[in-house]
């Protein structure tokens, strides 16, 4: 057993093992959790009430999570004198699956984002964010049409953290080199950031999205990028994503361009570059019908923001570089009630770190006020990662019923018609349990 400095390992419970690249889950797994800063204690305690009740009810006491607290952020600073101690990394890597509340990250000065640091350190390269509608909560007209799962690359792009501050000797060296050696014309009073996007990072992210799409019989995978402007980073993300899809999933996919070529080949009028191209992929279907194949397509990032508003039902699985994924996942969440309803996970080859997608909202600390659904639903993702689907179903169905009853926290109450009176965070959790 690995040794920790200031973390107590529960006497009961069993470690999740990894065999042949897959997790092997016991009936009593030890799951580390980080309570979080600000509202973290409120939403973590409420969420654990819901998770524990669903597991108890779903498996009649035969399964149970053994919780093990680990530390990051303000609580870690008090206990260790640092915000992200080695114990925390060690515990997540050892026990394989963990969950966390929101952590505070200072804007501009202070320390680097703890979330980004954890993703980088443990190579949790896929940020996975499913977005779906729960009745009665959304500010848009037809929110039920939006049901997507977003795979956001987690370790590259601007989040790689390669920056030089304006006015420093280091940034002067970078600017001098770029201007004299590379022919650029960067202003001398600039700060500089570098945006790396690699074949490795792109293909492993798209591979994970494609595997999900194949396993869930999804209709499409959309690559979102700004390749019309940044041709060798985001444009390359698009190209490498298509390469991966066709090379590794040829018998499962058809590209949107291939569908267009089919339609052109069959109309007898439109000139095409490859007569009869890819007709065999159609499998006897009508022109433009992909049959059972997953359609792989791409969209420019700014166009995609419009698409998820006006044509959301045309999208299913979405794969994006880091910054685009950050923006788009929040935009999608807004359509179904806000970040309070948006779960998330950071996943590597096997390690899964599940998390609330919103911030720590310190002004609401200890008020028992905020919506815990983001963390509760991140726990549902965790339960499904463990293959405990029955417990996940109980929670999702109970949340929907609770919202239909208009027993909601303040953030949902203010977007629901009819002057809904909000309830407390802890009361919302109890209502969900009652509705299981």
Query: What is the third-level CATH name, the topology of the domain at 1-137 and 341-435?
Result: Isopropylmalate Dehydrogenase
Structural class category: alpha/beta
How many whole angstroms does the radius of gyration measure? 23 Å
Envelope shape: globular
CATH homology superfamily of the domain at 1-137 and 341-435: Isopropylmalate Dehydrogenase
In which range does the helix fraction lie? 25-40%
What is the CATH domain class of the domain at 1-137 and 341-435? Alpha Beta
Beta fraction of the residues?
15-25%
Written description of the protein model:
This protein has helices at residues 40-59, 74-80, 86-95, 114-121, 169-181, 199-215, 234-249, 256-267, 301-310, 322-335, 373-385, 389-404, 410-413, 425-434; strands at 17-19, 22-24, 30-34, 66-70, 97-100, 126-131, 148-153, 162-164, 192-194, 220-225, 253-255, 294-300, 317-320, 343-347, 352-356. With 436 residues, the protein is α/β, with parallel strands linked by helices. The strands form three sheets. It has an eleven-stranded mixed sheet, with helices on both faces. Strands 1-2 form a two-stranded antiparallel ribbon. A hairpin with a 4-residue loop joins strand 14 (343-347) and strand 15. Helix 1 (40-59) crosses helix 11 (373-385), helix 1 crosses helix 12 (389-404) and helix 11 (373-385) runs antiparallel to helix 12. It is globular. The two termini are 37 Å apart. Mean pLDDT is 91; it is low at 269-277.
